[in-house]
């Protein structure tokens, strides 16, 4: 039997003078009816361009240089553009990563789903509306009739993604290409969407090409897996074979980097360890300013949070988006002023300090930011960025530069790169610069706000190891904020779970992961994708 | 590729730069080519261009040498353009930076002031200022700078509003940096490119504003500005049209040059256009 979608020796050329010549090189894949094929790879592996090539929607300057692409025997690459338009949406549909940008913000959901029918069929208006309603019911939107009339911004992220899926399903396509469809979603929403995809695919027998970077998602959903690296397919096989008996060294290193979902064995903190940072009854309310500063609706971002960070330990704050964990971090750093509460660093109460006194204290508590691209001033050299802090605190320039040099070595960057600009570094390297900048002031407490979330899994593992190592060597205390429970399990002594501004559970990592007491914590843990799969210890396989 | 390289590869920017250099050369050569006062009477009035070898561009209705007036006028127009632009952009950046960085009531207050300037047409406000403070050339230049700052203030404010929320600015605050340092050394260099580009527009407008004033005989009559010459030629516009047309052409070339340079800078500094052929 021939495969539904057969890709043979596909090669896609990148514009000249790039990092590499080919986005895809000799990729051969096949997708059968009724199966889910996961394409896994890190950023830059060419997995998204593979989706673009299948849809024949490549950015300008990027072109197919060889190979062929057959849908049920028909060569897609040879089709004229008009014929390809009839295939897009009708026979191959796509689900995008960010439903907010993939949907037109000015048109109602029902209208956008109806457009699929208006373009490809001659159904009447009433029939189209009926179909759209049936689709929204099928993707289990809570109130399908209301959703039909809703604008994209009126739905939540998960609901928007359901609407996108309804749109993709509209014409009962043979193949659905899903490009990281759950990456922008919270973990509980992700679990629901994955269940929905799996369920719809089983009922309709659609073939799904599912692109992801997350091995947890792969374990959750894949029938077969294809692993990509630098535009080449390095390994493919059944989910069981690739996940549990990876053959290629690259696959092994990727799987080894996936943190298991149980608290990592860490030596317990000695009893009676004093707290270095105490957060006491902190509340922060956002008020949308109405006319004359009154009357706007209020959001309690952080509600009466009390936590303490033991000296030399790691306190993880986990929660979904909107739970208030980043707001709390910004309150601790005095980037935001909470209405009530105290934040004590050692014996100093930070919130009541006057501005000049706070500037002198900043060297004791430092922060690493989430976005390695936005957190470094693009116009400053890496060395200056790191030396800046000590210079501000009165260290002579030559000494500060020497400190920057030493820190570059400490975080695993070449000291030769001190004179380079941020854009000349990769994402992981930039995050190391951010770390070096925070460490340059020799802080007692390091606040890391989603510091590894934007990184590829292998780089993430390196940075986490680096953090743990530095913590041991420098006696740092870490306030570690993350949405990723697997990451939190790796590095934290204590975990606080936040929801809607409240801390719903706080305890040692073992206790929170092993025997969660709160209902929400249990839901959160149950939503982590791929928990039935325990990543094999790759060293044994090697 | 460097910003300069990108600028030089852009035909619009390159043509603008050449024209601008031409105007600058004219301004520089004025004292050596025509060392005498360009406003003195040089010969019989209203001689057509190319009729008398002593006056290649002819003479105006009071018998002044038009060529001398054009070259000396280039100095005046460029000086007015530069000084007024510098003043306007400096005020604009200062106001925009403070409003955008601090937000809140500072922003409200400063933007209301900017709106007070913007609700009146620039030229009308300029007329009022000249009527009140007199039409000496220095005053006119200051007045032009004073009426044209709100647009660059709004531009700077918009840049500051987005930049102040970036993580690298938060990082500077957590390092213990003072507000003044953050504004001047961290945000401003990142906010500057669009303002620099806009300065080209301000300069072109400043030159035009002065010419318009002079055309109405409201600018300083004691300097050889192009606007004054056009204003003088108005009386003989129907027969000796060249008296107004020649300085008009000079203004056209200068404003075009400045605008093209601005556009070229925009293309060179705009990262989104990079990599396009």
UniProtKB/TrEMBL annotation, chain A:
Record family assignment: Belongs to the ABC transporter superfamily.
Keyword Cell membrane applies: yes
Keyword Nucleotide-binding: yes
Organism from which the protein derives: Muricoccus nepalensis
Biological process annotations from GO: peptide transport; transmembrane transport
Bilayer disposition of the protein: Peripheral membrane protein
A Gene Ontology cellular-component term: plasma membrane
Pfam families per the UniProt record, alphabetical: ABC_tran, oligo_HPY
Keywords: ATP-binding, Cell membrane, Membrane, Nucleotide-binding, Transport
Annotated protein name in UniProt: ABC transporter ATP-binding protein
Lineage: Bacteria, Pseudomonadati, Pseudomonadota, Alphaproteobacteria, Acetobacterales
GO MF annotation: an example: ATP binding
Primary residence: membrane
Subcellular location: Cell inner membrane
Span of domain ABC transporter: 5-255, 277-525
From TrEMBL, chain B:
InterPro entries assigned: BP-dependent_transpt_permease, MetI-like, MetI-like_sf, OppC_N
Protein origin, superkingdom: Bacteria
Gene3D superfamilies to which the protein is assigned, alphabetical: MetI-like (1.10.3720.10)
Record's keyword terms, sorted: Cell membrane, Membrane, Peptide transport, Protein transport, Transmembrane, Transmembrane helix, Transport
Major place of residence: membrane
GO biological process annotation, one example: transmembrane transport
SUPFAM superfamilies: MetI-like (SSF161098)
A GO cellular component entry from the record: plasma membrane
PROSITE patterns in the cross-refs: ABC_TM1
Annotated ranges, domain ABC transmembrane type-1: 74-262
Transmembrane segment boundaries: 78-102, 123-147, 195-218, 239-261
Topology within the bilayer: Multi-pass membrane protein
Subcellular location: Cell membrane
Matches recorded under Pfam families: BPD_transp_1, OppC_N
Family from the record: Belongs to the binding-protein-dependent transport system permease family.
Record protein name field: ABC transporter permease
Organism encoding this protein: Muricoccus nepalensis
